[in-house]
From TrEMBL:
One Pfam match: Vac14_Fig4_bd
Residues of the Vacuolar protein 14 C-terminal Fig4-binding domain: 513-693
InterPro entries: ARM-like, ARM-type_fold, Vac14, VAC14_Fig4p-bd
Record has Repeat as a keyword: yes
Sequence intervals crossing the membrane: none
Compartments (UniProt record): Endosome membrane; Microsome membrane
Function: Scaffold protein component of the PI(3,5)P2 regulatory complex which regulates both the synthesis and turnover of phosphatidylinositol 3,5-bisphosphate (PtdIns(3,5)P2). Pentamerizes into a star-shaped structure and nucleates the assembly of the complex. The pentamer binds a single copy each of PIKFYVE and FIG4 and coordinates both PIKfyve kinase activity and FIG4 phosphatase activity, being required to maintain normal levels of phosphatidylinositol 3-phosphate (PtdIns(3)P) and phosphatidylinositol 5-phosphate (PtdIns(5)P).
Gene: Vac14
GO CC, alphabetical: endosome membrane; PAS complex
Record protein name field: Protein VAC14 homolog
Subunit text: Forms pentamers. Component of the PI(3,5)P2 regulatory complex/PAS complex, at least composed of PIKFYVE, FIG4 and VAC14. VAC14 nucleates the assembly of the complex and serves as a scaffold by pentamerizing into a star-shaped structure, which can bind a single copy each of PIKFYVE and FIG4 and coordinates their activities. Interacts with NOS1.
């Protein structure tokens, strides 16, 4: 009856323009049939509503609300056959109405999203037909209400059902393909949901989502000026830390593009980005792709920090840039501006406070959140579980920040200093090298002399104890900084942190003897390259002069002396000590000598190095009465001119042995050493060499009466050698007393054990 008489009745009402009767018919079909308690009545009502819509034709758009609502209600029917009939009825209604259904799109989409997850295959098949029809209508129309649809899409995108997710992604792909629909404007609303769908267990859904994200990224690259980078930054930060490799890699690729396209707009999110990126730098080959992309992100972000970030106080500092970058160069040269606020990097609620990326005629203010960055870097340095490459990257960041923003960084130096010192115990030489670069920059930067930025531990710093040689530097600190990303420290100037660094370094060597044994020479040699070698030896000698742990002082002096004699990095310093003609060189010699007195062998070797042969002879005369040389005989071998090494700084003493007449105290000193040495390899080595000393009478020549051109002074002027000798005796007596005390304590302990 419905299929035959109803259409004819409806067409008559249409011809008469009798809208009240039409609504009455639809109401009866809805209330008494489609919404009836009896399944057969509901089925008949659905068929009747579809027939009514067909009969209405183009006028069906006037009654769509009344036609659609009862059908959508039947989508929730417990009977799968009725759900199928409802789907079929709605298909016919939509097919007739076409574009007129768009005002009702949200309710249709909501109903279809439920049917997409229907367990009945017939219902699902029917919903797919309806879905394709609706997509065709949306594609053809230019009246689609995207603004009204986005809230529903944002809600449905978090569905965990695979079929619902597939349905959502398919619609996103369709909307993205329509030229008149700009879905990119609303990407921040759905980006988080897309990344969650990317982690679906279904390969097909993951692939669809990957394609959708790829299309969005292509659109972003084409139109960066219309992209709301700031609103999506936190979303990417979160998913860059995802456990799923595909999600993490995709998010990291997006982050790379965002940093390169948006430039300094990403600076307020630097700490969050670093939190996500830094751990990835230590990934192994199983995650090689993620590691490579993370490395690009890290390098690109580092380049965004510029000297201008250090010009003003953080509360006032800001940068103004053109929002539409035309090249990487234009992104790196923003124009000056007024203040701006940084956003929380990891707080997703910040997404509710959008920072839109402006059009080319507008400007945006960004501020470097240095406090947040330093906090992240400090946290990673304290984390002992992080990989070597991450630690190196952290130290590179710290070095870069001290170069680009020294004034602001020195506000954090007191908190960073302890962990930087502890990092010297790292297992990796490369990490230690980078750590030393940071410490050297802290110790030499002119910004470290600014009032209020000095060392907090004032007890460690002893003003006036040593007068350091401070090389001049043109322009103590320019407002824009003077160093680039990859440059090494320039000629160092010693600031208030230099002496603190030396004190704490020696304290670390004292408390961690293994570090001194395994890395001590390596660390000091590298510091001599990064800083001024004379200042390092001068300050360490001054500190060791007051060291209460005499055993450590002796060991440390021996280490420094070995470095001084053998290190190629100290060639210039050795030459300076060989020529004691200037006040500076004599001052350095006296300073070193007083500390070198902690170890008799090093004291003698220093005299040999500086060609103070008479004083060396005088020292050797004091050694036997003090009873100290027999304990250190094994150390003598390394300083003997009889050493087989031709590159030893003391090797030139061999040639001076030929000039017996002009170097009598050299020969006397060496024979004195020989007499004190026990029978050992050192004794045999020196004895064999001295046997080669020629007879002075055989060396007579015609001009032998003239002073030798190579004649070296026996003593340097303006140096009180008597006072130095007395100081040597005083220090050695202290060591002798300390040894007796240790021996006494050991004897008492043995007695207690026996008792």
């Amino acid at each position: 009856v419905l299929s035959s008489s109803l259409p004819r009745l409806v067409r008559e009402f249409v011809a008469q323009n009798n809208t009240s009767q039409i609504k009455h018919v639809i109401q009866i079909l809805s209330q008494e049939f489609a919404l009836s308690q009896h399944p057969h009545s509901r089925k008949g009502g659905l068929i009747g509503l579809a027939a009514c819509s067909i009969a209405l034709g183009k006028d069906s758009g006037l009654y769509l609300k009344e036609l659609i609502e009862p059908v959508l209600t039947c989508f929730n029917d417990a009977d799968s056959r009725l759900r199928y009939y409802a789907c079929e009825a709605l298909y016919n209604i939509v097919k007739v109405a076409r574009g007129s259904v768009l005002p009702h799109f949200n309710v249709l989409f909501d109903g279809l999203s439920k049917l997409a997850a229907d367990p009945d295959p017939n219902v699902k098949s029917g919903s797919e037909l309806l879905d394709r029809l609706l997509k065709d209508i949306v594609t053809e129309s230019n009246q689609f209400d995207l603004v009204g649809f986005i809230p529903l899409l944002r809600e449905r995108i978090y569905s965990n059902n695979q079929y619902a997710r597939q349905f959502i992604i398919s619609w996103i792909l369709v909307l993205e393909s329509v030229p008149d629909i700009n879905l990119l404007d609303y990407l921040p609303e759905i980006l988080d949901g897309l990344f969650q769908i990317l982690g679906d267990n279904s390969k097909e859904i993951r692939k669809m989502c990957e394609v959708a994200l790829g299309e969005f990224l292509k659109e972003i690259k084409k139109n960066p000026s219309s992209v709301k980078f700031a609103e999506m930054a936190n979303i990417l930060v979160i998913h860059c830390q995802a456990a799923d490799d595909l999600i993490q890699l995709t998010a990291m690729c997006w982050m790379r593009e965002f940093i390169q396209l948006a430039g300094r707009v990403m600076l307020p999110y630097s700490s969050g980005i670093l939190t996500a990126v830094l751990p990835c730098l230590s990934y192994d080959d199983r995650k090689k792709n993620i590691k490579e992309v993370a490395n690009v992100c890290n390098q690109s972000l580092m380049k965004l920090v510029i000297p201008e970030d250090d010009e003003m106080d953080e509360a006032k500092q800001s940068m103004t840039l053109l929002a539409e970058p035309t090249s990487e160069e234009s992104l790196s040269k923003p124009e000056a501006a007024s203040s701006g606020e940084s956003l929380s990097e990891l707080d997703i609620t910040a997404l509710n406070q959008p920072l839109s990326f402006p059009c080319s005629s507008e400007r945006i203010q960004v501020t470097l959140n240095l406090d947040g960055i330093v906090q992240v870097l400090d946290c990673h340095l304290h984390d002992t579980s992080i990989g070597m490459m991450t630690r190196i990257a952290v130290l590179k960041w710290l070095y870069h920040l001290y170069i680009k923003t020294p004034r602001k960084m020195f506000r954090h130096t007191d908190s960073l200093f302890p962990i930087l010192l502890r990092t010297l115990s790292d297992e990796s030489d490369e990490v230690i090298l980078k750590d030393l670069e940071v410490l050297a920059e802290i110790a030499s930067s002119p910004a470290g002399q600014t009032e209020g930025h000095g060392p907090s531990d004032s007890s460690d710093v002893r003003p006036g104890l040593v007068e350091l040689h401070v090389p001049g530097r043109a322009g103590q600190l320019s407002s824009s900084g003077t160093k680039g990303l990859e440059c090494s420290p320039s000629t160092p100037t010693m600031n208030s942190y230099f002496y603190k660094f030396m004190i704490n370094l020696l304290k670390r060597f004292s408390s961690e003897r293994k570090l001194l044994e395994t890395r001590g020479a390596f660390i000091i040699r590298q510091l001599c390259l990064l800083l001024n070698a004379e200042n390092i030896f001068h300050s360490m000698a001054d500190i060791l002069l007051r060291e209460e742990d005499l055993k450590f002082a002796s060991t440390m002096v021996h280490t420094l002396n070995t470095i001084l004699l053998t290190s190629s990095e100290l060639f210039q310093l050795r030459n300076q000590l060989k020529d004691l003609k200037t006040p500076e060189s004599r001052n350095l010699f006296c300073c070193l000598y007083r500390s070198w007195c902690h170890n008799p062998v090093t004291t003698v070797s220093l005299c040999f190095l500086t060609q103070n042969y008479k004083h060396a002879y005088d020292l050797i005369q004091k050694l036997y009465p003090l009873g100290v040389f027999c304990e250190t005989g094994l150390e003598v071998k390394c300083i003997l001119p009889a050493s087989p090494s031709s590159s030893s700084p003391l090797a030139d003493l061999r040639l001076q042995l030929l000039d017996v007449k002009n170097n009598p105290y050299l020969i006397k000193a060496l024979y004195g050493l020989l007499m004190l040495l026990p029978q050992s390899s050192a004794f045999q080595l020196l004895s064999h060499r001295l046997q080669c000393v020629p007879n002075p009478e055989l060396m007579q020549t015609a001009d032998s009466t003239k002073p030798s051109a190579g004649f070296k002074r026996m003593t340097a002027s303006n140096i009180d050698y008597t006072e130095l000798l007395q100081h040597f005796e005083k220090v050695q007596n202290k060591h002798l007393e300390a040894r007796h005390q240790r021996a006494g304590r050991a004897e008492q302990l043995d007695r207690r054990v026996v008792l």
